[in-house]
Amino acid sequence: MQKIDYGVEVHIDDTLYAGKCLLQLLNTPLLSYKYQQDQARFLLGVNQQGWPQAEMLHGTNCPCFNQDYQNKDTKLSKIRLATVAMLCDKDDNFLITRRHSQMKTFPKTWVFPGGMVERLQDLESECLREVQEETGIDVSPILNKMELKVLYESVYPTKLQAGQLPQKQTLCIFYEVKLNETYNNIQVKIQETEVDDFKWIPKQQLLEIMNAQNKEEQYQEMSGIYPNEYGSGVGEGHIKAFMHSYKN
C-alpha cells in the first residue's frame, strides 16, 4: 500500500506549517476536526458545524509558543499526524512499551504503542496497524471498542537553543482500544528494533506510576515523567493523555 507524507491542515485560512503553536493559534483547547482520507488531510477548526470535537492537550513548555519559525526544509515543514493506542484488556490492564535504548529520540521512554500515519486508510486502521507492528497483537478479532479520547500537540526538541528550529512537530491522536480478552490470553511479540520491553499494568496502578507515587521496586525505573533519574520514565504526552482520559 502506498505510503504518504501526511500534514495537518488547520481549517482557518491556509495550511499551518510547523513552527507555530497550534493551541496558541486556535486559542481554545476544544477543537473541531475532520479527516479527509482521500486527500490525506486532517483538518482542525473551532465550532465547525457537523464536525466531531475533541480536546487538544499541550506540552508544559512548548518551544513554539510565541514563536513563528520558518523551516525551509520541506521534509520538516509540515506538521505530521500520528496515532496512539491506549490499549487495555477487558479488566482495564493497559499495555505500555519502552522505546529501545538505541533509538535516536526519547530512548528508554515508556509509551503506548503508536506511530506516524503513513497510508491512505482510515485512522483507526492506521492505529491498529501500528499496534500490530510494535507488539505483534492482531487487535481486530478481539476488539471490543475503539474511541478517540484526546489530541496532543508535540514538538521536538522540547527545548530549542538560539537559532535552532524544531525538527518535528506532530499532532498525536490518542485512542482508547478496549479488548474483549484478558491479557493472559494475549501473546505479545515486540518489534525489537524499536521496543525493548513491555508491561501490562492496571489502570489505577499506572496512574500512580505516572505520578511517581508507586513505590514498588519493579516500577521505579519507569516512574514519573521522562527523563527521570534512571534516564527513563513515561513520555509527557502519554501521561497527560492518560490522566485526561482516566483520572477520576
UniProtKB/TrEMBL annotation:
* PROSITE patterns named among the record's database cross-references: NUDIX
Q: Which GO terms describe its cellular component?
A: cytosol; peroxisome
Query: Domain Nudix hydrolase: where?
Result: 78-224
Q: Which UniProt keywords apply?
A: Hydrolase, Manganese
Name a biological process GO annotation: NAD+ catabolic process
InterPro entries reported in the protein's UniProt record? NAD-cap_RNA_hydrolase_NudC, NUDIX_hydrolase_dom, Nudt17_dom
Hydrolase listed as a keyword? yes
Highest taxon listed in the record's lineage: Eukaryota
Q: Which GO terms describe its molecular function?
A: NADH pyrophosphatase activity
Q: Which cofactor does it need?
A: Mg(2+); Mn(2+)
Whether Manganese counts among this entry's keywords is yes
The UniProt entry, under PANTHER family, shows: NUCLEOSIDE DIPHOSPHATE-LINKED MOIETY X MOTIF 17, NUDIX HYDROLASE, NUDC SUBFAMILY
Q: Which family does it belong to?
A: Belongs to the Nudix hydrolase family.
Q: What is this protein called?
A: Nudix hydrolase domain-containing protein
Organism this protein belongs to: Paramecium octaurelia
